[in-house]
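MODEL INPUT / OUTPUT PAIR
PAIR INDEX: 1
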Amino acid sequence: MYRGAGEDADNFDKEIRLTAPNGTWTQAETIAAGDFTGADRDDLIVRWSDGELTLYPDVDEKGFHGEVQVKKPNRLWTHATILGAGDYTENHYPDDFLVRWSGGEVSMYPDADETGLNREITLVYPPA
């Protein structure tokens, strides 16, 4: 994590290692930050190479504060790339995230939280 990055992308205050180097994080395929737990702190959502989706709540300079398995390892989610997270719905909270599927489809998962993805909204359908 880089703290203190302002408008100047070359001006990072400090690099903070959230975990000791190990082979686990080489399996992280895509990562996005949002506030999925409602604590007004940034959470990370990670899609792993085996299709598992994991939520890390309240990540800060002290590291990780728990881990929630949102999706068990599964073949379907190995085809998903998390594009980003933010506030895309009427609840005005950054708890939604976008996924691009390998077939060209784009989905939004609004109001995702530690209990699950809740629902999928297809934004772009795959080519016919």
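PAIR INDEX: 2
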Amino acid sequence: MIRIATLLCAALALPSLAVAAPCGNDSSGFAAWKADFAQEAAAAGVGERGLQALSQAQYSSRTISADRNQKSFSYSLEKFMEVRGSNTIIAQGRQRKANNPGLYAALERDYGVPAGVLIAIHGMETGFGNFMGDTPVVSAITTLAYDCRRPGFFTPHAISALMLVDRGEITNATIGARHGELGHTQFLPGNALTYGVDGNGDGRIDFNDVMDALASTANYLRQKGWQPGLGYQPGEPNFAVIGEWNAAGVYQQAIAIMARRIDG
């Protein structure tokens, strides 16, 4: 974990570096941008496999379309929960907890995060793994690092994705969400690199494995300040930590409501 944190710190310094190729709002400059970005990536510690994945990355028009059309976070809480299927998540979440109480008890013992919170996030993000994305992660995240809208935010995640390729945890062909998120709970690559843990004990971190994904999610929340045994509703100490997972107010409130109902 120390080495992972060191690598990410190097990546997080990247926005201050000069970028020879300009950002762009269409595919026309992507190839030139990749050539220059490869030099930055190599300087940050990305190895041969990561650089090869970068060279194979394709400009993702579907990623740009998704980034320009994020409407649900502007809904009212009631509309957001309806659109995102909260009643189904709660019902299925209660059943998942009942079917495997030992798993969730172990996660709460190790990280202090209650089952309801982890289950609500899992359900909200991918419908419990039923849809984990349709876009190559490396292509998606490098497209966003190149795009002029938010390159400062996505550049460290692009570096991290290439480091994950170096580590053998993803490949250029790994499929994720349209913003480059990975697996059951949709980790951005920088967070995957820093907070990922081997939940099933097989010696590797695979975000498409539900145990690894849930343990990593619990670890993320704990490292972001989750206080075991304290509340997570609005105004309670752990509610702000849900905001570390997603900055949208309606998302945070929905997770708190669903988690409370799942936990009974």
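PAIR 2 NOTE: The chain has two domains: 2-67+133-182, 76-132+194-263.
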